[in-house]
Amino acid sequence: MKVSIEVSKVKAREAEASPKPGLDALLPDVFAADCASRGILEHIVSRWGVLVLASLLEGTMRFSALRRRIGGVSEKMLAQTLQTLERDGMVLREAKPVIPPHVEYSLTPLGRQAAHLVWSLAHWSEEHVPQVESARAAYDGRRG
Can you tell me which residues the record assigns to a coiled coil (predicted)? Predict the structure, then answer.
C-alpha cells in the first residue's frame, strides 16, 4: 500500500512538472502579437495613459483639473484615455447626481499599482534629461 501511495505522489509531481498541450497558448505573453497583455501595456504606457495615471496618484480629480494638470492634452484625447483606462479597470469614474454634472476620476487598486510603476519610469525620465540630451547631441554630431 505504501508503494502505491509513493507511486501516486511521483506521478502527480511528474504531471505537474510536464507541460500540458496548449498551456503556452493560455499564458500571457506580451511578445505575442495577439496577447491581451500587449493591448493593456499599450494603454498604460501611452503618452496620455502614463500622465493620467501619474496625475491621479495625487488624488481624485475632475476632468477639467486633469486637463489643466496634463499640459498639451486635448479634450478628446483625455476623454478617450480616461474611457480606455476605465474599461481596463484602472480608473474609476464617479458621476455625482447634481446639476450641473459633477464627474470625478480616481484610481482603482489595480490602477494605483500601474500608476506607481509608470510614475517611476516618468520620474526616471525627468532625472535623466541631461544624459539623454547629451547622448542625442553626440549621436546627431556623428550623423552629420
Answer: none
pLDDT digits (tens, 9 = 90+) for 58-97: 999 999 999 999 999 999 999 999 999 999 999 999 999 8
The helix-helix angle for 36-45 and 47-56 (nearest 10°) equals 70
Q: What pTM, to 2 d.p., does this model score?
A: 0.77
Q: In the chain, where are the structural domains located? A: 30-139
CA distances from 117 to 53, 100, 105, 112, 141 (A): 10, 35, 19, 9, 34
CATH number of 30-139: 1.10.10.10
Stated length of the chain: 144
